[in-house]
Design goal:
Strands 1-2 form a two-stranded antiparallel ribbon. The protein is elongated and about 75 Å long. 60% of the residues lie in helices and 2% in strands. It is mostly helical.
Length: 192
């Protein structure tokens, strides 16, 4: 918008520094920065860190503190989701714990990107799904709704990961009670 590529894409071109500075003043002015965008579902990708970042911008904090507080929020979100993922994991908790402590996992989950939401929610969703498969005697709507809310979050961020929810159909159909209305059993209808 400020003509940066016009000036610097061709090194042989004479560059008008005054025009570039004028364009930068317009682009980075307070009026240009104060544009308020309506929230959308894609904001879920940056949920915990994005809220802190927005508050920091509104408070006009220095960028160092905005980024540091946003990353700290991402770390706290990862720790909380990791705690609940390990709490619900019925088998091989140690394996999940080691995966959660791998350097690449820690790097992705403690920075400001969509993986900081996707990975912790996916860990929790998988552990909760395994909890339903192995540890729950009867699965009803009360147990399924949190699973599908987390699945919806994952679907918004990265749709292929949503396919993990297909493991739900490995639950024995005698244990699943998803009644709609009077007597219509949804799970039995889907599974045949």
């Amino acid at each position: 918008k400020i003509g940066f590529y016009e000036y610097f894409s061709d090194p042989a071109l004479a560059q008008d520094i005054d025009a570039l500075k004028a364009g930068m003043k317009i682009h980075f002015s307070d009026e240009a920065r104060s544009i308020v965008r309506p929230p959308s579902l894609s904001a879920v990708k940056y949920f915990p860190a994005g809220i802190v970042m927005s508050i920091g911008i509104l408070l006009n904090l220095p960028i160092f503190w905005i980024m540091t507080l946003s990353e700290l929020t991402a770390v706290l979100f990862y720790v909380v989701m990791g705690y609940y993922a390990l709490k619900h994991m019925p088998v091989m908790k140690e394996v999940l714990f080691v995966i959660m402590l791998l350097p690449m996992t820690l790097q992705q989950c403690t920075t400001i990107n969509y993986d900081a939401v996707l990975m912790p929610v996916s860990f929790w969703m998988l552990s909760y799904l395994l909890h339903l498969i192995y540890s729950t005697k009867e699965v009803g709507w009360k147990q399924v709704i949190p699973l599908f809310i987390s699945g919806f979050v994952v679907l918004l961020i990265k749709p292929p990961v949503f396919l993990i929810l297909l493991l739900f159909f490995t639950i024995d159909r005698n244990r699943v009670r998803l009644n709609i209305g009077s007597g219509f059993e949804l799970y039995s209808f889907i599974c045949g």
